[in-house]
Predict the structure.
Amino acid sequence: MSDNNSTSRRGFLATSAAALAGLTLAPGIRLVEIAAAKPDNEPVTSKVRWGMLIDTTRCQSGCTECVSACGKENGLGEVTKPRTDAQWIRKIDLKDLKSGHALSLPMMCQHCAHPPCVDVCPTGASFKRADGIVLVDRHICIGCRYCMMACPYKARSFVHEPHTDQNPEVPRGQGCVESCTLCVHRVDRGGTPACVEACAAAGHNAMLFGDLNDPESAIAKRVREVKTTQVRADLKLDLGVRYEGI
């Protein structure tokens, strides 16, 4: 390739990148501004491993407080078409046909230590933070949906339609894949996920969030004290979400 062609190509790419940076995901939300935004707290570190423990003996069948809270917090809105249902957390009812034992549990992104979605992503849009939270970078997601096929938990959704009424802290873009973020915008401010807060407010207290790496944290102590289960533990993904009572 000639020098002139190389120069032209670099110029084209630079112009394209600048144009993309100015695109809007929704009124008032610009990609360039989102990319520059940083939490005000301490830098993310691997000393912390955020996780969740769900006690299925406390989770009530028919209760959807966690689902509703997630939708409200993340601007998912009302679902009008099942095909476009962007559901970051869903309730699953299970029953053992032999014993008759039934239970209900929330299912969301399991925030794997070895996430298959990250392994198959061709652009690096799917990534895991140092603190264990698995996210999607909407700036470089091309909507190929490889991650959706790779996820053993069916935890990811594809955004088929444009969205304008959304939470500025949780920008969503048509043509991107998305999933539970553990309400990372809350966590970075020292808060807890909306689903955990809603479950506690409903009086169920079935969801416990905290630092799995801190032996003095409530979640770490609970994991040591009771038998917990990782869904599809045979895959050896080292999940950040654990279940009690299954």
In short: Residues 5-38, 79-83 have pLDDT under 50 and may be disordered.
